[in-house]
Amino acid sequence: MTDSLLEDLRDLAEPAPATLAERVVDGWVRAESPLGEVYAVVGAGGVRLLRTATYAGDLDAFLEGYRARHGRPVRPAPRPPRGLLPALRGTGRSPAVDLTDVGDFARKVLDATARIPAGQVRPYGWVAREAGHPKAVRAVGTALARNPVPLLVPCHRVVRGDGDLGQYLSGRADKVALLEREGVDLPRLAELAASGTRLIGSDTTGIVCLPTCHHARRITAPHRQGFASTDRARAAGYRPCRDCRP
Amino acid sequence: MADDEQLRTALVEDLDAGFEAVVRTHGDVVHAVARRTADRPADAEDLAAEAFLRAYRALRGYDAARIERLDLRPWLLTILLNTARNDRRDAARRPRTDGAADPPDRASPAPGPAERAEATDLGDRLAALLAELPVAQRTAVVLRHVVDLPVAEVASVLACSDGTARSHAARGLAALRSRLTAPPPEETS
After folding, report:
1. Which residue in the set A8, A16, A73 is minimally distant from B19, CB to CB?
2. Is A94 part of any domain?
3. Which CA distances in Å does A143 have to A139, B22, B78, B175?
4. Interface check B13 vs A, CB under 8 A
5. Chain A partners of B56 at a C-beta cutoff of 8 Å?
6. Which residues in B lie closer than 8 A to residue A17 (C-beta atoms)?
7. Final residue of a structural domain among A41, A57, A89
8. Cβ contact (<8 Å) for A13 and B122?
9. B23, B123, B173: residue with CB nearest A25
10. Which chain B residue lies closest to A24 (C-alpha atoms)?
11. What's the number of domains chain A is made of?
12. Which of A30, A155, B43, B150 has the most CB within a 10 Å radius?
């Protein structure tokens, strides 16, 4: 005689979904980027860590550092995640990134930074304000210096308020190279910075923008007005651009 | 599927490659127990994944001799049950802020009367009754009868003697049998 209760109990054993192994074990890949070869660690939720080979050094040490810091196993992945290669080439949106291991503040900073369009730059103070902590300008610098996924979250597009390019986690030269590649006119930015001009307005529209905003770039020379601050621009009757939100 | 001897050798040779094999080999049993332990079905995979990551972190600190002695399946299940207990304690201590669920208002994952009434399917009804058992009996029944572990492994996970493990499982089964044959609970309050 078979015991139906025992059979019914055995039927309660639900096998693991096929996704369990990939949720536990992360994968690593190498890929090409504008800064040369990069190593990326990818989990089920997206890219968790990305470093240039020059900055990370030895691959084994990089992987061991990842395991030690995150306490997660990592194995060679059969292929890069969908979207990673185009994003690194600058021809596509970033693949999903997994920021669960960064703090709340850093996540807000990275989210705000991710919204800066290619070919444009924003001051640290802008990121602080967009992240909901307008006074935490220095902390923004710290959070971006620890960006787990540079290039995908474009921290190279964040510069100092005085127009200086500021630092970059793998060195200032990398920041210059990335911005030049995106078509940012660095000599012009330096000129504006030197003259104390932080914003550009159009006297035909009465709108004032950050200098790299695509609206600002369309203003012809005769109509271009420079301002040292949003307050000065407002006092002159200008309103801030809704796209670049100076 | 590799046997535990091969898995231990693989872990000693290359921890991460060996660990992936461990997840693939023992993922089903760990998940099945997680499913009968988690408060909500959606939490089972999270719980199983978290338990595996804890196991990995522990293994990183073990030397080869210790890994060679590991009885992987009961060791993993012990970690799973500890993880579930800690999660429940944490959830009770501070409410979840992600809006995923209200904190359970009692330690046991037993469903409320409404859910019991809805459990028309026999499997659902049995799962609900199982969840209401005292924790030692429930764990013993899950390990012994749901995932079919030998008594010695059940005893190892419960950290008790074989005799005690057997008696927890038997009392759990007896309770399930009597409740299954009992008339369904009255709807009136």
Report:
1. A73
2. no
3. 6, 36, 38, 56
4. no
5. 24, 71-73
6. 31, 45
7. A89
8. no
9. B23
10. B49
11. 3
12. A155
> Where among A27, A56, A89 does a domain terminate?
A89
Specify whether A185 is located in the same domain as A210.
no
CATH of the domain at A112: 1.10.10.10
pLDDT band at B52 (very low <50, low <70, confident <90, very high): very high
Same domain, A8 and A82: yes
Q: Which of A65, A36, A45 is nearest to A170 (CA)?
A: A36
In terms of domains, do A8 and A80 share one? yes
What pLDDT is attached to residue B92? Answer: 78
The reply to whether A112 and A168 lie within a common domain is yes
Name the H helices within chain A.
Answer: 4-10, 20-24, 53-56, 59-70, 84-89, 104-114, 124-130, 137-145, 172-181, 186-194, 214-217, 230-235
How many Å apart are CA B21 and CA A225, to the nearest integer? 65
Q: Do A5 and B19 touch (CB under 8 A)?
A: no
Query: Is residue B42 very low, low, confident or very high in pLDDT (cuts 50, 70, 90)?
Result: confident
Q: Is residue A72 part of a domain?
A: yes
Residue A17 is part of a domain; what is its CATH number?
Answer: 3.30.160
Q: Has A244 been annotated as catalytic?
A: no
Domain span at residue A20 reads: 3-89
Q: Is residue A126 located within the same domain as residue A85? A: no
What is the DSSP secondary-structure string of A186-226? HHHHHHHHHTT--EEEETTTTEEE-TTSHHHHTS-GGGEEE
Query: Is B141 within 8 Å of chain A by CB?
Result: yes
**Cα of A183 vs its chain's centroid, Å:** 18
Average predicted confidence (pLDDT) for chain A = 93
Q: What angle do CA A214, A222, A184 make, to 5 degrees?
A: 30
